[in-house]
C-alpha cells in the first residue's frame, strides 16, 4: 500500500488548471508528475489547455492509464481538453459538475486574470492554490493582487519564495500559506545507464560509429530567450581554440527544432560560424516525439547539459540531466541557482532575503561540484506594460566557452564522478528534486490547506491607506565593486 493512500471515495478532489497533462510542454510534464505522484491521495480533474486543442469539447477518463503507470487500482483522473487556459463559464460549470475541494493553477498569473476576477466568488466555497515561479528581481509588485487572491502559494524556487513573501510584506500570509516546492523529476525515468546492450546499440547507431571524448547536450526550445545563436558561438569559440585532433572529438548535441519563428535558423548560424571539420554539431532530429526512455539515452550519451538563457524560472533540462548523472553548465539566475547549490558564509545552501534577492552578481561562489556556473556580464531591464521590469541576465559567449573548457579539462572520469554526485544530491531530502518528493510535498501542503482554510465572506471592506513598502533600495542590481569604481571616478 502506497504511503498516504486514501480510498478513492474518501479522497479530496482537485481541479487542476494548466496545460493538458498529456502534452510534453514543461508545464504539462510537471503537472503529470504531480498527478501521478498524488493520485493515491487525491482525485484530479485537469482542465487541459492547448492552443487550438484538437480534442476541445470532449472529456476523457484516464484513470486506467494512471493505474497502469503507478500500480494503483483506483485512481480517479479526468481530462477536459480546452482551447487556452479557461474562462469564467467553464470553471463555474466544472465546480458545479465535479464539486472539487480546491483549485490549483500553474504558470504565469497573466493567463489567469479572468480567474482572479472571480476569486471571491470561488473562495467563499473552495480555496485557490497557485504553483508559482518568478524568473528574477526586481520584486514584481504588479503581481501583488494575484498573490493576495491565493489561499496558498507553492513556490518552485527559493528565489520565488523570497519574492512572493516580500511582494506581500504589507499583506502577510500565515507561514503555512507560502511554501517551497521545487520541481521533481521521475528518478526512475532519468537515471545513469550501466551495461545496457540496447542503449549501446542506440548510441552506436546514432553516432554512426564515431567516438567522442566530450559530448554536451542542449535540450531546449528554439526561442530567443534560450539564446541558441549564442550557444553555437560559444561552442565554436571552445572548439576552434582546441587542437584540431581534440576538437574533432567534441560534439554539441541539440534536441530542438532546427528553425523556429520564435527563435532562429540554427543551421544557418552553424554554417556562418562553424568549420564542420572542427566544430561538430548534431541534432537529435527525431522523426517522432522522443519517449522518456529515448531522452534518457541522449542524456546518458552526454557529459554535460548546458543552458545560456536570459531568463529561466527553473530549467527542467538541467534537473533531468542531474538525474541522469550529467554535470550542468548554466547562468546564475532563477531556479538554476537552486540546482547549483550555492553555499553561504556558514556553509548552508543559500536562502534569499529582501536585501539579497539573487546570487546573479556572485556574492557567493562556492557551489555543488556538479555545476559550472556562468555569471552574467550584463543585467538588462526588460519589460512590457503588464510586466514593466525584469532583469534579463546575459552571459558572455567567451565566458560560456571558458566554462565548457573548464568542464572538458576535468576528463571523462571526473565528469562522471561529479555528475553522479549531482544525482545523489538531487534525490536527497535536502534538494527534493525527485517526482516522489514533489508529490509528498504537494500532499503535505494540501492536507495543511484543508485543515486550516476557512471560506471567505462574500465581501470585505478594506480601508485604503498609503501603506506601501519601499523596495527601490533592494531592486537595483550592481556589483560589489561598482560603488568603489564610481566613487573613484567621482572624486578624481
Amino acid at each position: 500500500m502506497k504511503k498516504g493512500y486514501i480510498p478513492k471515495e474518501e479522497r479530496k478532489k482537485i481541479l487542476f488548471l494548466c496545460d493538458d497533462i498529456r502534452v510534453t510542454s514543461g508545464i504539462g510534464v510537471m503537472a503529470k508528475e504531480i498527478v501521478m505522484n498524488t493520485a493515491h491521495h487525491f482525485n484530479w480533474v485537469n482542465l487541459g489547455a492547448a492552443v487550438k486543442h484538437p480534442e476541445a469539447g470532449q472529456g476523457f477518463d484516464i484513470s486506467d492509464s494512471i493505474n497502469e503507470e503507478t500500480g494503483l487500482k483506483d485512481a480517479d483522473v479526468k481530462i477536459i481538453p480546452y482551447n487556452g487556459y479557461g474562462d469564467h463559464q467553464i470553471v463555474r460549470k466544472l465546480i458545479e459538475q465535479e464539486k472539487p475541494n480546491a483549485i490549483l493553477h500553474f504558470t504565469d498569473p497573466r493567463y489567469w486574470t479572468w480567474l482572479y476576477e472571480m476569486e471571491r466568488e470561488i473562495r467563499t466555497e473552495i480555496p485557490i492554490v497557485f504553483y508559482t515561479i518568478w524568473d528574477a528581481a526586481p520584486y514584481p509588485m504588479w503581481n501583488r493582487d494575484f498573490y493576495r487572491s491565493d489561499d496558498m502559494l507553492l513556490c518552485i524556487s527559493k528565489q520565488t519564495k523570497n519574492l512572493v513573501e516580500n511582494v506581500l510584506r504589507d499583506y502577510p500570509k500565515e507561514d503555512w500559506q507560502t511554501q517551497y516546492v521545487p520541481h521533481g523529476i521521475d528518478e526512475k525515468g532519468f537515471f545513469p545507464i550501466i551495461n545496457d546492450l540496447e542503449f549501446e546499440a542506440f548510441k552506436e547507431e546514432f553516432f554512426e560509429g564515431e567516438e567522442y571524448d566530450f559530448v554536451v547536450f542542449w535540450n531546449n526550445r528554439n526561442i530567443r530567450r534560450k539564446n541558441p545563436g549564442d550557444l553555437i558561438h560559444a561552442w565554436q569559440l571552445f572548439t576552434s581554440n582546441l587542437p584540431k585532433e581534440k576538437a574533432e572529438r567534441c560534439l554539441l548535441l541539440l534536441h530542438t527544432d532546427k528553425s523556429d519563428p520564435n527563435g532562429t535558423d540554427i543551421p544557418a548560424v552553424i554554417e556562418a560560424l562553424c568549420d564542420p571539420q572542427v566544430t561538430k554539431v548534431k541534432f537529435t532530429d527525431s522523426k517522432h516525439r522522443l519517449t522518456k526512455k529515448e531522452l534518457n539515452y541522449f542524456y546518458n550519451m552526454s557529459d554535460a547539459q548546458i543552458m545560456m538563457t536570459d531568463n529561466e524560472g527553473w530549467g527542467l533540462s538541467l534537473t533531468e540531466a542531474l538525474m541522469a548523472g550529467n554535470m550542468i553548465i548554466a547562468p546564475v539566475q532563477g531556479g538554476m541557482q537552486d540546482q547549483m547549490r550555492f553555499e553561504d558564509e556558514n556553509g548552508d545552501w543559500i536562502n534569499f532575503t529582501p536585501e539579497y534577492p539573487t546570487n546573479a552578481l556572485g556574492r557567493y561562489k562556492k557551489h555543488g561540484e556538479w555545476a559550472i556556473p556562468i555569471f552574467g556580464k550584463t543585467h538588462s531591464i526588460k519589460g512590457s506594460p503588464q510586466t514593466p521590469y525584469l532583469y534579463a541576465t546575459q552571459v558572455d559567449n567567451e565566458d560560456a566557452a571558458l566554462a565548457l573548457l573548464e568542464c572538458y579539462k576535468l576528463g571523462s572520469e571526473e565528469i562522471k564522478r561529479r555528475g553522479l554526485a549531482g544525482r545523489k544530491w538531487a534525490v536527497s531530502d535536502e534538494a527534493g528534486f525527485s517526482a516522489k518528493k514533489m508529490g509528498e510535498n504537494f500532499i503535505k501542503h494540501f492536507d495543511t490547506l484543508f485543515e486550516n482554510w476557512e471560506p471567505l465572506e462574500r465581501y470585505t471592506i478594506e480601508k485604503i491607506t498609503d501603506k506601501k513598502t519601499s523596495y527601490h533600495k533592494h531592486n537595483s542590481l550592481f556589483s560589489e565593486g561598482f560603488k568603489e569604481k564610481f566613487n573613484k571616478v567621482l572624486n578624481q
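The mean pLDDT is 94. The first strand starts at residue 12 and ends at 19.
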